[in-house]
Amino acid sequence: MSKLWKEFSKGLWKELPPFKLVLGLCPVLAVTNTANNGLGMGAAVIFVLTLSNLLVSLVRKAIPAKVRIACFIVIAASLVVAVELLMQAFSYPLYQQLGIFVPLIVVNCIILGRAEAFASKNPPLLSIADGLGMGIGFTMSLTFLGSLREILGQGTWFGMHVTWDGFEPFGFMVQAPGAFVSLGVLLALMNFMENVRRKRRGLKAVEGPSHDCGSCGACGSSSKC
Question: Are 52 and 115 in contact (CB under 8 A)?
């Protein structure tokens, strides 16, 4: 159970996809003009990521190494089609808002990255925990960023008015430049918090990414490939 929790919890902070691994930034920047869009995209990613991890783990020994990436894409594409149909049936306005970024989940680097780095090397239960944790972390990140931009840019949160009378929304925040600025500020804040945490533990502050594969955090290795 402790190992399951370790694999699940790493995606909630230690390897938080957008802010720690800096993965999946296209939907992070494109659809987070509202909290609802961020939550909807995150929920779709949770579905695809968790089930793709499970399926890849189940068939990992039967997939030839030379075609594994193609097989991972086919699995992800099948799950994305299912997500599209479910969203069209039960949340069509949200599906229209997310637009092309729903089918683009197929090539999201988080989906393929977790399939290649983790699910193809680990048993089903650990793969489910990894996918679920990464998906929830991704969803929290998108929802938080979307909430920040919606509150400052429109004065609402999930469509409800939450600001005081006389508040003048910053329209800049719900436009494309606002996405980059918000993401940059949050990345800086995450790095600052991580350095404070490391300093309290007596560790050296992280000054920048290293030049080995361990800096991506996917496998936990600190040595070069």
Answer: yes
How far is the CA of 182 from the CAs of 65, 112, 155, 188, in angstroms?
A: 40, 26, 16, 10
User: Which pTM was predicted?
Assistant: 0.87
Residue 225 falls within a domain, yes or no?
A: no
| Residue 58 token pair | 């189940």
pLDDT grade, residue 215 (50/70/90)? very low
Count up the domains in the chain and report the number. 1
Q: Which residues constitute the domain of residue 20?
A: 2-161+168-203
83 within a domain of the structure (yes/no): yes
Residue 136 is assigned to a structural domain of this protein: yes
- Given a contact cutoff of 8 angstroms between Cβ atoms, the answer to whether 106 and 71 are in contact is no
Amino acid at site 205: A
- pLDDT one-digit tens code per residue, 155-211: 999 999 999 988 999 999 999 999 999 999 999 998 898 889 888 888 877 665 444
Q: Is 212 among the domain residues?
A: no
